[in-house]
Amino acid sequence: MEIEFRYLNVGNIPDILPLMQDFTHHKYTDTVHAKRFTAMFQHEYDCIGFYQNNKLIGLCGLWYQTRHYSGKSCELDHLYIKPEFQGKGLGTQFISWIGDTLKAEGYEALELNAYKENTASHRLYAREGFAHLGFHFVKRLGE
Questions:
Q1: 76 belongs to a structural domain
Q2: Is pTM beyond 0.85 here?
Q3: Number of domains in the chain
Q4: Which residues of the chain have pLDDT under 50?
């Protein structure tokens, strides 16, 4: 399957929103997502769009940091591919592409968090050489 990976920006937020609604099962409004993405793009963040025939079919956020345990690293965030395009090797293709791209820029590691119920993604990440190092915890403030 011919896929093009493109860096997105604030101007692409309207294109990102429908995929984020699918990804989060409409947990947040478009207004909330747009506000959050606008803020994210102002920090050490990029978003990659997966395009087939100029149509956005997937995306993945990238957070850049240096960590004591992994060095200069990039955290993959909200890797999402529309269901009809899942299972076709796009995740593997993306991880290879972003890994090669970042390695050439001096990055030492890729990291990610995955929802515990998303076992299909766990299999993908294990096949792609990610090690399971721990658990991600969240405490909601004000709830």
A1: yes
A2: yes
A3: 1
A4: none
